[in-house]
Amino acid sequence: MHNQPTQPGVRVNLAELIEIRHRVREVQLFSTPAKRSPLIGLHHSKLRGRGVDFDQVRVYQAGDDVRTIDWRVTARTQEPHTKLFHEERERPTYILVEQSPRLFFGSGLMLKSVLAAQAASLIGWAALGHNDRIGGLVFGAEQHEIKPRRSKQSLLQLLNRLARANQALSSDAQASGDSFGLALRRAREVLRPGSLAVIICDERTLGDSSEQQLNLLARHTDLLLLPISDPLDHALPAAGLLRFAERGAQLELDTHDASLRQAYRAQGEARQARWQRLAQKLGVPLLALSTQREMIEQLRDHLNAQRPGKRL
C-alpha cells in the first residue's frame, strides 16, 4: 500500500520520503565541525568537537592531562584537582508531524499534507546524519509513535507511518478533536531535557491549549517550529461566489465582497503573527512553509535570513 504510485503533490509514498535523503546537503540544518548552521541554538555543537561533556572533579593523578586541571578547586583545596569528562550522548530528535484531514488541501505546488511529510523526512535524514537518535509522532486521525533510537531503522519506521497516514487522508475524513494538544502532551511525557522537538503542523492548529503545551514543552526541550500554510489560508481571490462543502455541510462565500476578503486576510495575518510572537517569546526558530514554493528553497531562504549571528 505505502509504495503504490502517487500523484505528485497530492500524496507521498515511502520511496519518495527515502529519496529526500539525497537533498540533505542542500540545506545546513545542523552544525558540523566544518560548518556552523544558523540554527546553532538547536544543537550543543560546541561540545561535539571534543565529543565529551563536563562531568565532575577529582584529585589529580599521575598521567592526567594537565590541561584539565581545575585551578579554582585546586586553589580552594590547596591540592591539584582535575576535571573529568564523559562521552556526550547523542541527542534525541523527536519529530511531531501532522497528517490530519485539514492538511488534505492545497492550491499551490502540493497539498499541505505532502509539504509536511517532505519537511519531516528532510529533518529526519539531517538529524540521522548528525548522529542523533530519531523518533517521532505522526498525529491526525490517529497517533503513531516511534521511540527515538539511533538507527536508520527507526527513521524508516517513522517515514513508513508517515506515508501510510498520508495515503489514508481524504477530504471527507473526520478530524479528531485536539490531536495537536494530545501530541504535544505525549512529547512532554517521553522527551528528556535537552531533546529537540520538531513541530510540523497546520498553521491553523495553534490555539490557546496547544500554545500552553508548547510553552511547557519549551521549558526542557529545544523547539523548531514549522507551521504549514497555503496561499488560500491568507487571502481569498475575488472569484465571485465560492461554494465549500464538507461532510454534508455547505458554505457559500461572495468573494466580491471587499469587507469579507479584508476580514479573511486579517484572520490569516493574525495567525501568522501569533506564531511569530510565540517563537520570539520562547526564543526558538520559526521556519514557516507554504505550498506555494518548493520546500528546500524556502528552508534555504529562512537560514540565509538568520546569517550571520541572527538568532531567533
TrEMBL record:
Protein name (Swiss-Prot/TrEMBL): DUF58 domain-containing protein
Organism taxonomic ancestry: Bacteria, Pseudomonadati, Pseudomonadota, Gammaproteobacteria, Pseudomonadales
Organism from which the protein derives: Pseudomonas aestuarii
All residue ranges annotated as the DUF58 domain in the record: 56-273
